[in-house]
Amino acid sequence: MEVWDPFDGFFRNSVSSPSLQAFASDASAIANTQIDWKETPEAHIFKADLPGLKKEEVKVELEERNVLKISGERSRESEEKNEKWHRVERSSGKFLRRFRLPENVMLDQVKAAMEDGVLTVTVPKAPEPKPEIKPIEITG
Fold first, then answer.
1. Cβ contact 93:25 at 8 Å
2. From first to last of its 140 residues, what are the pLDDT tens digits of the chain?
């Protein structure tokens, strides 16, 4: 069963310039990069589905003001002269996502790993300072 998308082909059909069509494809790739963000007591964990990409094709960076940036590019498969494509649904192009991290993270201990097409970025939390309890002497 095929699901109807009212915006499918909107950019490609409404613009005739090849460069604008490429932009529309890139915009689609950016929008379709799905990333989960969960918080545990110890860390913030980001998981991105990036099937078919190698770790060399993905960048994980920290920008100023606690911003985590995940980017990369999925190349389009080249079409051979004697091949006929019936359907191309996998997105290609550049992708970029940014996430503002909270203040209580340890930016110097961020880790990233790629396994089975899933990128996992772990941002450890700084330990919460324990409240200082000062006894007050009762007089009288």
1. yes
2. 455 655 555 555 444 544 444 444 444 554 568 899 999 999 999 999 998 889 999 999 999 889 999 999 888 777 777 888 788 777 778 899 999 999 999 999 999 999 999 999 999 999 888 889 999 999 98
DSSP letter assigned to residue 105: B
- State the residue for tokens 């379709």: 32
- Please give the Cα distance from 58 to 96 (Å, whole number): 10
pTM of the model: 0.68
Altogether, the residues listed in the chain come to a count of 140
Looking up tokens 């007089």 gives 139
CA dihedral 127, 49, 59, 17 (to 10 degrees): -140
Gap between the terminal Cα atoms of the chain: 83
Nearby residues of 114 by Cβ (< 8 Å), 6 or more positions away: 50, 53, 54, 55, 58, 120
Tell which residue, 116, 33, 23, 15, has the closest CA to residue 74: 33
Among the listed residues 115, 32, 100, 40, the one whose alpha carbon sits nearest the alpha carbon of residue 66: 100
